[in-house]
Structure formats: C-alpha cells, structure tokens
Design a protein that fits this description.
The protein has 18 helices and 38 strands. By secondary structure, it is α+β, with helices and mostly antiparallel strands. The N terminus and C terminus are likely disordered.
C-alpha cells in the first residue's frame, strides 16, 4: 500500500500578488534563488537546505533539476520525487505532476505493461486536496479502487467507481466522466497515503481498448476523449507525458496557532510583523497570512509590507468607482488610508467624503443678493442637487450598512473574482422594474425574479423581505464563502446588490423547475424511471456532503426539501437556498416561524432542541428520498381523505413489511426490488429519531452511488455485479482473471462483488 515518501504532492497558487517580479516584494530568504525555471519558490520552500525551512519539515527543500531546459523543480526523496508545477503561499497549496496506474493487454489478454501508482505523505507537509482533486478511471468495463489511510482514522479507507462502454460511439469528446468511457469520485479528507488498483474482466478486453488507467487528478483537468481508449499507453503518451496535475494542501504540521494572548512557541513560523495564524484547512497544523492592508510573505521577517491603497486605486481602470476618497485627497497610512479635504471644503464626518465650507443656508443667503430669477433658478438647482445627494447618500449608507466596503476588501485580499456587484439600476433593468411577469418564485422569505443582464445572461434574482441588522457582516461573510463553492450540483452565486435596504442575491438560472414540481405537479404525471430518480438523489446528496465537509467551513443547508432542489435541461440536480439558517440567528420564536415552510421535512430532534445540525439536513434528505420512492408529498391526503405525514406512514409500512404497498407503482419490478429495498433501508437510517445514529451526508452519497451502479448493472449486463449493504465487518473479495484482491476492516459499508 505504501510507496516511497512523497511520490506525489500538490496544490496550486498563482503567485501574482507575491512574486518578486510582479510586486517587487521578496519571497525567498536573502541570497537564495526565488525561481527554478519558470516556477517561483517562496519560503518556507527553498532550493537547497540553507534556503528552506528544513527544521520545520525536510520536505520544504526543493531540488532544481538543471538537466532539463528550462530547469524543473522537484520535491521528495529520490527516486520518488514529484515535479512541482507551482506553489501558493496565500492558499497554502502546491500543484505537481502525479502518477498514473495502468494495465495494458494484448489481444489474447496477456498483460503487456502495467504500473501501480500511489504515494506516502506521512511526515510530509502535504495532504491531497479533497475539493481540487477527483479519483478518475478510464477504460471499458473496468473498476478503479483507491485505498489508503488518513491522519484522523487508522482504519483503511476505500472508494472507487465503475466505467463501462456500452453505447460509447454516441459519447462526444469533452463529455464529463459520469460512467461511459470514464468515471470519477471524490476522496476523503486527511489522506496521508494511497494506492490505486484496476479491476478488469480480461475476457471482455476490447480490441480497440487494450489499456486501462486510474489516477488522482485535478478537478476539471480530464474530460473524455475516444482516442484515449485506443492504442498501447496512448493516453500517457499523448496527454500525460509528465504525469497528471494533482493539487495538495500544505501547512506547518508540527504545531498549532497560539491561543489568544498566549506567547508564540519556539519555532513559530509566522515571523513577520503584521501577520497572523490560521488553522490548516486539511489535516493538522497551521498556515500564516499577512494582515489586512499588508501583502508579501508572512514566513519571512518583515515579509508583510504595507499596501498603498491610494496608488492602487489610481492605477485601477475603475478609478472613479473604487476611489476611496470621494471629493477628497487620499493619504496612505500603515495598514490603511485616510482622506484629506482640499481648500474650501471640510470633512462630512465620514472617512471618505468632503463637503463645501458654506452650508446650503449660507448659499441661499448669497443667492438672494442677485435677481429674483437667479434666486429661483438657484433654489431649484440646490433642491435638485440636495435630492440627488440625498439619494446617493442613502444608497451609500445602504452599501456600507450591508457590508459593501468589507466585501471590496475581501475581494481584493482573497482575489475573489467570481462575484459581480450590481447597482439597483442594473437590477431594475434586468427585472423590468420587478415586473410580475418576471416572478418565478414566491415564498415566506421573499420573491425570486428571472432577470437578463446586459450581456444577455439569464439569472435568478432573489429579493428577500428582511435581514437582521446584527447579521449584515455575517451576510457578507456568507457571500465570500458561497462565491468559493464550485460544485456542479449546487446553484452558483453570481453576484449581489447591496445599495438597497435589504440586499439581493443573483444566482445562475436553472430552467427546468423544482424537484417538487417534477414529482407532484398535476401537469406532470409521466413515468419517471428509477435510474433518473437515483441520479437526482445521488447528485443532491453529493452536493449536501460537499457543503458539510469539503468546504473551508461547514455550511448547514437548514431547509432541505424538494422545492429547494432544481433541475436543469438534462434533469441534473442543483441544490439551492442552502446556508439560509446561517444568515440569521434562530431563537425559539423565530424557529417556529422558520419551519412553517418546511412542514413534513423537519427533524423531530431539532424541533425539540431548536438547534439545527448537519444531521438535521440528513433527516430532511431522508424525506426527499421518500418522495422519490413513493411520489407522494411530505404531507399528503390518503384514500380516506385524511391528512398524513409521509415520514410516519412510510416507517410504519416498512416495519410491517408492506413496502410494495407504498412504493410508486411505476418503479416496482422484480429485477430492481433489491435496489428499492436497500434504498428504503437507507431512507429509514436517515429518518432515525436519534441524530447521532444517522449516517453522514457523505455516507449517504456513497451508498446512493453504489445503488446507482447496481441498478445500472441489472439493466445493462447479462451477468450483473451483485452488491449489498450490511452493518458490521467490511469484507471485499474481487476475482478478476488471474488477479485477486482481498482486504478487511471495520466500516459501515460492505461491498460484495460476486462476479464481474
């Protein structure tokens, strides 16, 4: 399982704000090279022992291999070194070329060439990023398995996916890896080592597809291409000659941030003044950042230098809009700036504005000395100017009140470029002044409009009713967090409007309505196949698992229901309106008002405690599974015209072994009853009254992925793979041609592969 130390590491950061060539600030120790070839090497990394923080970890030492032109930076112990693509200080990431596992066969299924790729990162600063990487498998009728160990769990971690080739000719180049020709799956956090295996039925090796591949690669790097299946080692020779891009989080692993007021320990890495410590995103340890208003390398003495905000604004193409001193003169100070008013003007009491010395009343008195016509004209002009100023001040006040200045600072310091700040004028134009014809949703929290921006981009604009004044700063923090979420099954936040009393959010537009409408609308009663229901459930679960455990901070959805799961043109699930509970505190009275729109989905444990947890989302998702299984509403009317709770009725009928009586008749078939029974069992686990005994959303997503593959095999394969779930020992035995793999460990999920 374990390879030589550090066969693979990574994560990327574009050092544009920190490289010596772009900002003039040093990034390496004095007298040490700051580049190897075209790659910047910032401290604590360094080329050679004297230039790296080897006392913190010897893997900070970089070897510059000059046998190549240009030279290539390498990290690790020979021969298990990895080529560095780039390093990030601010994001604490490194990006490298990673290994590929492959098996190649001749036409008579003789092994022609093979390689097993993996790495061992124990005692290194590196952990593979869970959000930036995916385990990917390429080939026909092959299963790829990734297994390894983590910092936090001594038990074996196992995951994988299955790739098939039925109908491969209809798959276009550039298609995502959803199973046909290639597949992909996520990895667990804190993975310290791994090995990848390929499980192949040699009797089904296709003449055009002699080679099969498995690899851990950067998200979005690989998309399907038919010629990757053709020829011996064709994929490696054409697209991955030096390996595949792989991203790793790095940190100072042998320590932690000092507690408030505590003295920094010996060997503390954040040595620059105007720097601060943050806990590592992935695994143990900590990272260093420059304080607000400063930039540079926080790991170097005096590495964080003051930013000249006045100079930056004057060089900005949007100078008039972003310049901090309206009608004043900007003067830079350490960590910030102040505004000075010119001759004939005085401060308006705020940091960013100036006003004339003469008041409006004084101006009117002077005006009375001229002719009455001039006086009238002056009064009218002053009144108009006053109204415009009042209107502008009101918008500026709302903008500041809603955290606009903080958002600008965050956008600059964190390099957030995915959020567009709209003016109220742009929003009114996009929605035709909030026309009723543009309304696409209306609920207890506000209205949702279909809008069209200037570049003909269709968006959804959410106009909330009210937001707690005490939570406006948290609102901006949520915008920053949501802007960094990039998941194909989560509705993307595109922008916001802050110069109104209640801020508005702008999302991508999803055209096919909600899952609730798809299942329950009287206008839509067509048959919904089981594989589509499993696809929607799996994608929704993966999205919820992502916001629970794969982001920089845990986000609770707080209102999981079929109305908040949208469907695009290809019926892919898109989870929406998550994080709503984080936008305001929920006391007892507010909690009762909050649940009015989610009756039938509410976790009974949360109803008693008035406290939402990640297991509250699991319970609500269990109710969504029941809707997919039964096609009944959470609160429905039975044959006796009585109102029933679906979660209560389903539990009773399941316990009384009357499952067939409540399932949707359209999906009841003998061939898939095993899948339906296991899906019902999974829903029952989600609906457990005790939150701690429910599975996590990640476990739910993994089980749904496996059920989808079982259902696919039942439909497409004459001799399908048979799998089932139990609770107890994990025992996996896979026989494939001349290869046999066995492992055992304690886990909740059991995968039995009886036959390929």
């Amino acid at each position: 399982m374990k390879e030589a130390p550090l066969l693979m590491i990574l994560i990327t950061f574009q050092v544009t704000a920190l490289s010596a060539t772009s900002s003039g600030l040093p990034i390496s120790l004095p007298g040490c090279p700051d580049k190897c070839g075209d790659v910047s090497i910032p401290y604590p990394f360094g080329i050679g022992k004297g230039c790296a923080a080897a006392s913190m970890n010897r893997y900070f030492i970089v070897n510059c291999n000059s046998t190549f032109q240009p030279p290539r930076p390498m990290v690790g112990d020979p021969p298990a070194t990895a080529e560095i693509m780039d390093i990030s200080l601010e994001q604490a990431e490194m990006r490298v070329y990673g290994p590929i596992s492959y098996n190649c066969f001749t036409s008579n299924t003789t092994v022609m060439d093979n390689n097993t790729g993996g790495f061992d990162l124990v005692d290194t600063p590196f952990i593979p990023s869970t959000t930036r990487n995916r385990f990917t498998v390429i080939g026909c009728n092959t299963m790829g398995i990734i297994g390894g160990y983590t910092h936090s769990n001594p038990d074996l971690y196992v995951a994988g996916c299955y790739s098939y080739c039925q109908g491969i000719n209809s798959t276009s180049n550039g298609a995502p890896c959803t199973g046909k020709g290639c597949c992909e799956t996520t990895i667990t956090p804190n993975l310290t080592d791994y090995a990848a295996l390929l499980i192949i039925n040699q009797s089904s090796v296709w003449t055009f597809n002699p080679c099969f591949y498995a690899m851990l690669a950067e998200v979005g790097w690989y998309s399907f291409r038919q010629q990757d299946l053709v020829g011996r080692l064709g994929f490696i020779k054409e697209r991955a000659k030096r390996g595949v891009p792989l991203v790793a989080d790095w940190a100072i692993r042998n320590g932690s941030c000092p507690k408030d007021g505590a003295k920094a320990p010996f060997g503390y890495a954040c040595v620059s003044s105007n720097s601060y410590c943050v806990d590592a995103i992935n695994g143990p340890g900590y990272m260093c950042n420059c304080s607000e208003g400063y930039e540079g390398n926080p790991y170097l003495p005096r590495g964080c230098q003051d930013i000249d905000e006045c100079k930056l604004n004057k060089q900005n193409p949007n100078y008039e809009e972003l310049y901090p001193c309206k009608n004043g003169v900007c003067r830079n100070i350490p960590g910030g700036y102040v505004c000075k008013c010119g001759i004939g003007k005085r401060s308006d009491g705020k940091n960013s504005g100036c006003r004339p010395v003469l008041t409006q009343a004084e101006q009117v008195v002077i005006g009375l000395s001229v002719s009455s016509a001039v006086v009238i004209a002056l009064i009218c002009m002053l009144a108009m100017r006053f109204q415009r100023r009042k209107y502008r001040k009101e918008k500026d006040a709302y903008f500041r009140k809603n955290g606009g200045l903080k958002l600008y600072d965050e956008m600059r310091s964190r390099q957030v470029d995915t959020i567009h700040i709209l003016t109220e004028k742009e929003v009114k134009k996009a929605t035709e002044n909030y026309s009723n014809d543009r309304v696409i949703g209306c609920g207890g929290q506000g209205m949702v409009y279909r809008g069209t921006l200037d570049h003909d981009k269709v968006v959804a604009i959410k106009k909330s009713k009210v937001i707690n004044d005490n939570c406006r700063e948290e609102f901006v923090n949520e915008i920053i967090i949501l802007s960094q979420i990039n998941h194909r099954n989560i509705v993307r936040l595109l922008g916001c409007c802050l110069e109104v009393d209640v801020p508005m959010l702008v999302y991508e537009f999803i055209s096919n309505g909600t899952l609730f409408e798809f299942l329950h609308s009287s206008d839509c009663k067509s048959v919904i196949p089981l594989d589509l229901r499993l696809k929607i459930a799996t994608q929704s679960a993966e999205a919820l698992a992502y916001i629970h455990s794969s982001t920089s901070r845990t986000i609770l959805h707080g209102d999981v229901k079929s109305l908040n799961i949208l469907l695009d043109d290809e019926y892919n699930a898109k989870v929406a309106d998550f994080g709503a509970s984080a936008l305001k505190p929920i006391n007892k009275d507010d909690f009762i008002m909050f649940i009015q729109g989610t009756l039938g989905y509410l976790d009974p444990e949360s109803f008693v405690s008035h406290h939402l947890t990640d297991k509250s989302d699991v319970y609500s998702f269990g109710v969504v599974l029941l809707e997919l299984l039964t096609r009944k509403k959470p609160i429905y009317i039975d044959n006796l015209d009585e109102q029933k709770a679906l979660s209560h009725t389903f539990v009773l009928m399941f316990q009384q072994k009357q499952l067939r009586d409540i399932l949707d008749a359209d999906i009841i078939e003998d061939e898939v009853m095993l899948v339906l029974e296991k899906l019902a069992e999974l829903a029952m686990h989600c609906l457990n009254p005790i939150g701690d005994e429910r599975p996590t959303m990640k476990e739910v997503a993994e089980r749904l992925q496996m059920l989808s593959r079982i259902q696919m095999q039942q439909v497409t394969t004459p001799n399908p793979i048979r799998m089932h779930y139990t609770y107890g020992e994990l025992s996996m035995s896979i026989q494939s041609g001349g290869m046999k793999y066995q492992s055992s460990d304690t886990a909740k999920l059991v995968l039995d592969v009886d036959r390929l």
